[in-house]
Design a protein that fits this description.
- The protein has 428 residues and is of the alpha/beta class.
- Helix content is 21%, strand content 21%.
- The strands form four sheets. Strands 10-11-9-12-13-14 form a six-stranded mixed beta sheet, with helices on both faces. The protein has a five-stranded mixed beta sheet with strand order 3-1-8-5-6, with no helix packed on it.
- β5 and β6 form a beta hairpin.
- The radius of gyration is 33 Å and the shape is elongated.
């Protein structure tokens, strides 16, 4: 089964916590703090693998996690960094945030490797927090938390030309004749279930062509496998409509083109506006006096869309069509279509962890001592006598998780909170 879409959960590594320890050696009974820093958490990296053509690796496994950083150790020992995880994807894969469908990365062109989630920074050990006022800091910085994100992977094939048309009009037969692709070909009354890519070589230059699975009415609304197919023409610069000029299936070729253009317009007006060519296929099956090719030319050539009569089975008219496609490509801007980044995980997911401790006083169980370098600094420049200043300090304690930590430690209403010479009565 061709897999061109996958929904997975990725998680970077948590940063290792900083360590709290003190130098203890013979003849040095009260040495200073020597807690080491925690290691960095591993990153989640996406990398293009030229050998992959589908997202099949992500069909049966949904969660991918980088390694956490190790905690720091005694004697200023630094914790080991966590290992990165590298996820291989085929070229042309677009990585999106699953809920909003905003683009995080387009793995094509020059972008062959991208860090999508960064691992958390390691926390600083207590050796960094010794001051003249606090010579024995009992706190260290926690490591930054891991980032976790659900992402949608979509493979949008990279081709210069997209073949579009209803099922059973001869697209696969045409592709097998002009390229080295080997699509399955038969008189199916349904459609190819995966896009086929092939390289065309002509005297005036080569190009990559994609057989986009046959469209049906309502494809733009997701009828059938509409969206599964339409995404693969988002990168193509030129569209080639292949129609059954002989109406062997009983459909009107002129009506077919209008119906397909309507579906393209509904899905993405920008795609419908791209240069187009019509290949009037199965001319070897045309019998009778009526000339459907002339009817196609009269209808579409005044609109600037060239019509080429061909037979994909016998090869008649194929050379002229390929030359016409190449000329049309040469007249288009040679720009690779890529999708710009719209979602930046680092702006949303990283929060700063503050080092602090919450401890009951040994002499009075109703007194809770709270210490930390940021708390000390905040007390230094916040005017607690003003209502506004006190509200600001309370918000700082709440946002930093310090109030939650005090509740976990068992603080009750009426207990005292002691911070660097300030005593506060605790109320919810």
């Amino acid at each position: 089964m061709f897999a061109d879409r996958a929904r997975i959960i990725i998680r970077s590594g948590k940063g290792g916590d900083g360590h709290v320890s003190f130098r203890r050696e013979l003849y040095v009974p009260n040495g200073g703090p020597d807690g080491g820093d925690g290691g960095r958490g591993g990153d989640v990296i996406f990398e293009v693998d030229k050998g992959q053509t589908t997202l099949g690796d992500y069909r049966h496994k949904r969660k991918f996690k980088a390694q956490d950083g190790q905690e720091g150790g005694k004697r200023r020992c630094h914790g080991a960094d966590g290992a990165d995880i590298v996820l291989k994807v085929p070229e042309g894969t677009v990585i999106m945030e699953a809920e909003s469908r905003k683009v995080i990365a387009d793995m094509s062109g020059d972008n062959q490797r991208q860090v999508v989630l960064k691992g958390g920074r390691g926390g600083k050990g207590n050796q960094h927090y010794a001051t003249a006022a606090m010579q024995v800091p009992k706190y260290a910085q926690p490591g930054q938390p891991a980032q976790e994100l659900e992402v949608l992977l979509e493979l949008k094939v990279i081709a210069d030309v997209g073949l579009v048309g209803f099922p059973n009009v001869g697209k696969s037969t045409f592709l097998s004749r002009v390229t080295n692709a080997q699509p399955k070909i038969a008189n199916y009354h349904f459609t190819t279930l995966s896009p086929n890519l092939g390289v065309v070589d002509t005297d005036n230059g080569g190009f990559v062509i994609a057989d986009i699975p046959g469209l049906i009415e309502g494809a733009s609304q997701g009828v059938g496998l509409g969206h599964e197919f339409l995404r693969h023409i988002e990168r193509t610069r030129v569209l080639v409509h292949i129609v059954d000029a002989a109406s062997t299936e009983g459909r009107d070729p002129v009506d077919d083109i209008y119906k397909i253009n309507k579906e393209l317009e509904a899905y993405n007006p920008e795609i419908a506006a791209r240069p187009q060519i019509i290949a009037a296929n199965k001319i070897d099956c045309i019998f009778g006096d009526e000339d459907p090719v002339k009817r196609l030319k009269d209808e579409f050539e005044p609109k600037g869309i060239r019509v080429y009569p061909i037979s994909a089975v016998s090869g008649k008219g194929i050379k002229e069509l390929l030359y016409g496609i190449r000329e049309l490509l040469d007249s288009c801007p040679d720009e690779k279509i890529t999708f710009e980044q719209e979602f930046f995980p680092e702006d949303v997911l990283i929060t700063e962890n503050l080092p602090y401790t919450v401890e009951r006083d040994k002499d009075d169980p109703h007194v809770f001592v709270v210490e930390g370098p940021k708390i000390e600094k905040m007390l230094g420049y916040t005017n607690l006598d003003s209502e506004k200043g006190f509200a600001f300090f309370q918000k700082f304690l709440k946002d930093g998780g310090i109030l939650d930590e005090m509740e976990k430690a068992g603080i009750q209403e009426g207990d005292t909170v002691r911070m660097y010479g300030f005593d506060f009565e605790y109320y919810k």
